[in-house]
Amino acid sequence: MTNTPGAPSVTTNVPFQPIPAPVPLPGSTGTAAAPVITITNTDKRQIDNLRLSATFLINGQPYYDYEDHGTFNQVGVDGLSGENGKWNGSQWVGNFLHSESSQSTGAFLRTLNQAEAQTGYDPWPPQDEPILPNITIVNEDGRGITGLRVTADFTINGQPYTDYEDIGPFDRHYFLELNGMNGSWNGSKWVGNFLATKGSGFDTQIDPGLLTFLNILVIICMAGNVAAAVAGAAIQIKHGGDGDSAGGGSFKLSQVW
Prior knowledge:
Largest sheet: 8 strands, mixed
Strand content: 35-45%
Shape: globular
Number of strands: 14
Order of helices and strands: EEEEEEEHEEEEEEEHH
Helix content: 10-25%
Mean pLDDT: 79
Number of helices: 3
Structural class: alpha/beta
Distance between the termini: 32 Å
C-alpha cells in the first residue's frame, strides 16, 4: 500500500491495447503461470488520482488493501499477496496490494522495439503506434484467493468516479478495461460500469500470441535494467516465434473475447 500518488503527465491515447498477463509464480521454475488481472486505460481523457482497492478471502478470512497510482499513464505491475498482515478485529490489513514496478508507455515500447530488433521478429505494434497505459495485478500468494473484488476510485477533470468489479476466485487471467464514460451523477460522484471485465481464461483458453506478448510485457516491467529487459524479452520473442512455447502472432485485445 503506497499512499503517494504519482505526478501527472500527458497520457497517450492511441487505440492499441496490449495487456499484461501470465508470469512465472514467485519461486517457481517458470513452467507455471501466475494468475493476473490486467486493467487497461481506454478513456481518452486523463485519469488522475487512481486508487485500486482489493478485498478478498483466504481460507475464509477477509483481507483488504489499496494502492494509489496517481495519474493512470504508465505501464505497471502490482503484486497481491495476503502474507505479513495484521488482524484489526474484523479483517486482515497490510501491504497486500503493492506496486512492483512502473514505467512510461514510451519507455516500454522502446525496450520492446530493441528486443524485436535483436530477433528480427516484429509481430507487435509498429513504432508509431504507442501502447495504452495498463496495470497488471499478479497473484503472488500460493494460497487460494477467493471472493476477490477490485475497486477503482479516480478523478477526471477533477470530478470523482468510482466502480468495482467482482472477480471471485483469482485462479486465472482476467482482462479489464477502465473508462469513465456513460456514468450517472449520484449527488457526490460519478457511478457506472467503468471497470469492466472484457475476457478471462486459463493459459490453454487464451490466444498463444497474446500469452507470449503478456509474458514479455511483465518481463520488461520487472527487469532490473534496460539491458536485462531487452535480453529477457528477446528470448521470449524468439521462443514464441520458433513455436517452442506460446507462439508469436499479431493480435488486439478484442481477440480475447
